[in-house]
Amino acid sequence: MSVEQAIHTRWAADPALASLVPPARLITGPPLAPLPLPWAMLERTGPARVRGGSHYQVVELELAISIWHAELAGAKAIAAALAGNLHGASFASSEGTILRVVTAHQRETRAANAAWHLTQTFALLVARPRA
Hints:
The chain is an alpha+beta fold. The chain has one domain (3-29, 37-61, 69-108). It has 3 helices and 7 strands. Strands 1, 2, 3, 4, 5, 6 and 7 form a 7-stranded mixed sheet that branches. It is elongated. The two termini are 18 Å apart. The model has no long low-confidence stretch (mean pLDDT 92).
């Protein structure tokens, strides 16, 4: 499973996150149709940076998870649960072993439809055998 699929799986398995935003409302990439609030979107941002030696590569990825909610307090509650689930985590994916997830930054804005839009950006370190 990809990094994104692994995060979807972690979200669905976390009772706190799943109760705040149903797993079906965590999407990868922009929605094809409007979704009821609250919902969240996962997407990679920026280019991957690759380092490594003769046997392994370490890839630095940046992922943004955007949360839309009618109330700022609700968006912040989701962000706190998400940070609790991901920050410092390590887990497996088909792209390699995620060695570490770190919360890079968070931004809050009011969207045009009056919903709150909160984006959390995470930095991931992924180790994989050199191909």
